[in-house]
Amino acid sequence: MKYDVWNGTVIRKEALTQDIFDFTVKAPTLASVVKPGQFANILVPNKLLRRPISICSVQNGFLRFVFQIRGEGTELLSHFQVGDTLDFLAPLGNGFPVEDPQKKAIFVGGGIGVPPLLGLAQKYGRNGTAALGFRSKEAVILEKDFAAAGSTVKIATDNGSFGQHGFAADFLEETSFDICYACGPKPMLKAVSKLCKQMNKQCWISLEERMACGIGACLGCAVELKRSNGESYYGHVCKDGPVFSSEEVVL
Amino acid sequence: MSERLHVKIAGVDFKNPLIAASGTFGFGREFAEFYPLKTFGGISCKGLTLKERAGNPPPRIAETPSGILNSVGLQNPGVEHFIREDLPWIRQQGPVIIANIAGSTVDDYCQMAQRLSQTEVDLIELNISCPNVKKGGAAFGISCESVEKITKAVRAFCKKPLIVKLSPNVSNIADIAAAAESGGADAISLINTLTGMRIDLKTRRPILHNNTGGLSGPAVFPIAVRMVFEAASRVKVPVIGLGGITSWQDVVEMFLAGASAVQIGTILFHDPYAPVKILEGLEQYLSKNGISNISELTGKVQPW
Questions:
Q1: B72 inside 8 A of chain A by CB
Q2: Residue B125 belongs to some domain of the structure
Q3: B221 reaches A (C-beta below 8 A)
Q4: Among A21, A159, B267, B288, which residue's Cβ finds the most Cβ atoms within 10 Å?
Q5: At B142, which CATH number?
Q6: Do B61 and A211 touch (CB under 8 A)?
Q7: Domain that holds residue B197
Q8: ipTM for the assembly
Q9: Which tens digit of pLDDT belongs to each residue from B105-161?
Q10: In a domain, B304, yes or no
Q11: Long-range contacts of B194-198 (CB under 8 A, 24+ apart)
Q12: What pTM did the predictor assign?
């Protein structure tokens, strides 16, 4: 389905941590077509540009957005209350390709890069392993949601206050998998891409960039990509991504 | 849509005075998902260069109070690719087609004007005001001598009506407008973006990788109105007003200041349906005030 502007009521709002919010928004038409890894460009009051927010998961006519306050726009978004209407442009981007949910998949997420992977975990069920990394115990989110989706959940924290002391990418070598999906900070994506290349595994990564139109018209959200001949060029996160094969991105 | 909105610019009929501004609209494909492109009277395509251009490294976008800064850097597939892959499709969609051209030498502009004159584009817009490229671009647009010179040079190769798009980063916009007119422009459009900059406090780096970028959006609207007023007061050729338009009221204001048509851009990122709403508002305003054609408003401001 092509994108359009939608209005959806916030029916549930929860603070998962001090600065991470979880919205459930009514959007029956959209919910039936959204693919894991796609995103919405959400209007916030008194801001000219919409804010690109990943769709965490879809269920029974509802979309779930889990986002972190990162600046003025997301701060304003966090002020929405249950009963308010969100104006958003969706579904945007190409999402994560799921060729065969019978294969073994690993979802490597770092911090606020974790939410867009949940929809995937629901597709893979028991064939999925969620390798999630956070700063500390207080920052851990969605652990139960990945477990409920059927994933084996492995958690690492930077300071060792919860789970294994270290990074999400540390779990790659000990896990048996056919395909890897990752979303998180650039250094994590770099490490995951490198490991997958060494292990000769397929790897898909989801990126973010400052964005304006969200549909590929303004060319604002450039990302350096490389062709198979090694030549590099600028693609765009909104239209060509946000999910890319790790082989095609210059990280 | 009634005849109230019909305008004629440089001999070309526009069903309505609303034109998609170059650089915000690509070649129209993405917005055609929302409504037929012929909703617009015309579209000014993404700025073209002779050869494909990669554009600037990211970040290319920064939001500012009531505006955005961009430094896309004229990323485009090149004029031949446009003619081959995009033009035939846009032609089928119905709006007037304006090809926006940019270059690093006068010769680049002349070659492109000559090439595009052999195609089905309706008008050519000379972009001598892009602030985001190192060579050429705005450099041609900041002195009267160079504006007149490049307009005259391109005019000789251009068989289509020629619009010259002016930079606001100049000391006297009326003089620049007059220079474009005496160089042979059939119309002028203004304003392109104003050069600006934002700095990230944490990293102490400019938010844009290009350090500086072009400011657009409602923040620049009053400047655009003033410059359209000053330019239109000086020249006889039609003026296309742009810069921060978000509503039908802004369009009326631009006309009063001296515009004969308008372009909208940045508002499309906020509300892709803005043109539909603006046209509805204009139609109602004209009808309620017994104005049989929007052109009657052009230049009707009554200065103190």
A1: yes
A2: yes
A3: no
A4: B267
A5: 3.20.20.70
A6: yes
A7: 3-297
A8: 0.92
A9: 999 999 999 999 999 999 999 999 776 666 666 778 889 999 999 999 999 999 999
A10: no
A11: B194/B168, B194/B169, B194/B220, B194/B223, B195/B131, B195/B169, B196/B64, B196/B69, B197/B69, B198/B62, B198/B64, B198/B69
A12: 0.94
